[in-house]
Amino acid sequence: MPPSAVTKLQSEVNKAVKVILTNYHPRPIRANKVIRDTAFGFNSYYPHEINLLDSPLLQRLRGIRQTSLACYTYPSAVHTRFEHSLGATVIVGRMIEALRNRESALVSNPVDCAEARMAALLHDIGHGPFSHGTEIIFQEFDEIKNVKKEKPELFKDNAAHEILSYFIVNSSSFKEKWEEIKTPYLSRSDYKFNISGIDINKVALMILGKHPNPDMYFFAQMVNGPHDADKFDYVTRDGYFTGLRTAINIDRFLLSIGTSKNDKTKIRSLCVDISGVT
After folding, report:
1. 51 lies in a domain?
2. 1 pLDDT exceeds 80?
3. What's the gap between Cα 115 and its chain centre?
4. Is residue 24 part of a domain?
5. Residue 103, domain CATH
6. Is 81 helix (H, G, I), strand (E, B) or coil?
7. Which of 34, 43, 168, 272 is deepest in the core (most CB within 10 A)?
8. 239 burial class (0-12, 13-18, 19+ CB within 10 angstroms)?
9. What is the 3-state secondary structure (H, E, C) of 204-258?
């Protein structure tokens, strides 16, 4: 019996990830690192997040412009997927803090919060050259079409780069490197949560906007949903670097977010009060 489309694509992605990560040897980071971002100022990142940022999977995003060829119309729009990933992580963190002020019990587990930040950090590692400019090509690949057909409940509504990001994070090569990254922090007394509790499979699912626990679905929607960190970062960042004015105020939005549970599906979704968008 021939391998399934999902198995075939996962195998091919794993081979590529193994090559990319072969010469990357993560070193323990002493403490949180503060990075200054043009759009969102000074922000702190966990040591394991810095290890991920230092990896070739994230560093390659420095060479992928966020707005593809828009810089030929807006010369200053040369920002990249790398700083966008940093920004998305920051916004997820701020969303969590905003929810903590309103529905603290839902975000009381620091591992859930760390998984959401990690998904935001990794959500764009499947992007190809020219960002969304090559999306139209990738979506025509048989490998992408076949996994969508085989697992529509998982991939039907996702873009090709999201599917590739999922397979990269879910690859055995990435998981092996993650074991190397997290090991030095297992016994660190200054770590505020048990890093061994991070579930890589869950992180991969959140990149697709999905979560295995219906009551925690809002975490996935912070990363990929109707009003997610991805959108808030690129609207803010793209507007800044193109000089175009945007009507979104993130601080106002954060004061209005909450969750709502569907009694039928039992899914708890991220929502925003109408006052936050008017």
Report:
1. yes
2. no
3. 10
4. yes
5. 1.10.3210.10
6. helix
7. 168
8. middle
9. HHHHCCCCCCHHHHHHHHHHCCCCCHHHHHHHHHHHHHHCCCCCCCHHHHHCCEE
Task: Enter the DSSP assignment of 64.
Answer: S
Range of the domain at 243: 5-251
Q: How many structural domains comprise the chain?
A: 1
Alpha-carbon gap, residue 242 to 240, rounded angstroms: 6
Which residue has tokens 């800044």?
240
Q: Taking a C-beta distance cutoff of 8 angstroms, is the pair 174, 168 a contact? A: yes
Q: How confident is the model at residue 71 (pLDDT cuts 50, 70, 90)?
A: confident
Does residue 21 have a pLDDT over 70? yes
Report pTM: 0.95
Mean pLDDT value of segment 178-198: 93
List, for residues 92-151, the tens digit of each pLDDT value: 999 999 999 999 999 999 999 999 999 999 999 999 888 888 888 989 999 999 999 999
Angle formed by the axes of helices 142-150 and 160-169, to 10°?
A: 80
| Token pair in block for residue 192 | 């505020």
In a domain, 240, yes or no: yes
What are the C-alpha distances in Å from 226 to residues 5, 98, 218, 267, 270? 29, 17, 11, 15, 9
> Do the beta carbons of residue 195 and residue 186 sit within 8 Å?
yes
Rounded mean pLDDT of 47-65? 97
Q: Residue 159's closest CA among 118, 201, 208, 121?
A: 208
